[in-house]
Amino acid sequence: MINNKMAPILKWAGGKGQLIDLIVENMPRTYNRYFEPFIGGSAVLLALMPKNAYINDINKQLINLYKQIKKSPNKVLEYVENLDNELCNKEKYYENRDRFNEKILKKELDVECAALMIWLNKHCFNGLYRVNGKGLFNVPYNNKKNVKSVDEKNISAIGTYLKENNIEICCKDFEEFCENVKKGDFVYFDSPYISESDTAKFTDYTKEGFSMEDHKRLAKLYRKLDKIGAKVMLSNNDVKLVYELYKGYNIKPIEVKRMINRNALKRFGREVIITNY
């Protein structure tokens, strides 16, 4: 059963909100623990609400956000509301962006960092999260002055869910994170996608990006998890290389609408859901 009580806090490139029904439809009917190595906006986790889950992302600021909401959703709300109470203009946006980047440089992963991330996501261009080669957030202002950054009930519900269930939040390389997967567990991979063309690349969630070697390493891990008896699902673009990397598995093409694309004509495409069961 899909939960409709909670929604992603952030707009996130590749978010799976619109595909929840298809993902749930293609999931295994039974499994032990739930693993999601690329948690992103957490749409799937929040829809499923597993009681035993391991979630992960290499983006330190994103993982800090989930940890802070689990620890004290009220404190996060207080900080975000303080930011919302100040009139937003171009000067204020870049002041807050500089403050967020200062925290990144100082490696300050705290409640203020989480609040700034939420606020910037609502006030930046197209809800992108993108960083430069130094790992600093570099998305410009969206020119919106009066935007409410949070839904208080949603933040509180997510905090309660994370705190009252066995949800382990990690910040590791995806391969290291999956070392704990055992037979009967379910792993859902929603990694940065293989691009449809050289101009369509968007993997800058971290300064390291996600390379072709990472995609090959992920495919190798997929086969390893298959061999130990885990149930594995993976989402990616419907491109030739994906069929080559995951040859021998069940590959189902699906039509999708992509919200984060500057060209509205390119907001439709084809993806695939790959399963080993």
Task: Tell me about this structure.
- The protein starts with 19 loop residues before the first helix and ends with a strand.
- The chain has two domains: 17-58 and 172-199 and 208-275, 3-Layer(aba) Sandwich (Rossmann fold), CATH 3.40.50.150; 65-152, Adenine-specific Methyltransferase, Domain 2 (Adenine-specific Methyltransferase, domain 2), CATH 1.10.1020.10.
- Helix 9 links the parallel strand 4 and strand 5 (231-237).
- Helix 4 crosses helix 6 and helix 5 runs antiparallel to helix 6.
- The protein has 277 residues and is an alpha/beta fold.
- It has helices at 20-25, 43-48, 60-71, 73-84, 90-106, 111-123, 152-164, 174-177, 212-228, 240-245; strands spanning 34-36, 52-56, 166-170, 186-189, 231-237, 250-257, 268-275.
- The longest helix is centred in the middle third of the chain and has 17 residues, at 90-106.
- Strands 3-2-1-4-5-7-6 form a seven-stranded mixed beta sheet, with helices on both faces.
Notable characteristics:
277 residues; alpha/beta; Rossmann fold; Adenine-specific Methyltransferase, domain 2; seven-stranded mixed β-sheet; 10 helices
* Rounded radius of gyration (Å): 18 Å
Total DSSP E strands = 7
| Proportion of residues in helical segments | 25-40%
CATH superfamily of the largest domain, please?
A: Vaccinia Virus protein VP39
CATH fold-level name of the largest domain? Rossmann fold
Number of helices: 10
Q: How much of the residues is beta strand, in percent? A: 5-15%
Specify the structural class. alpha/beta
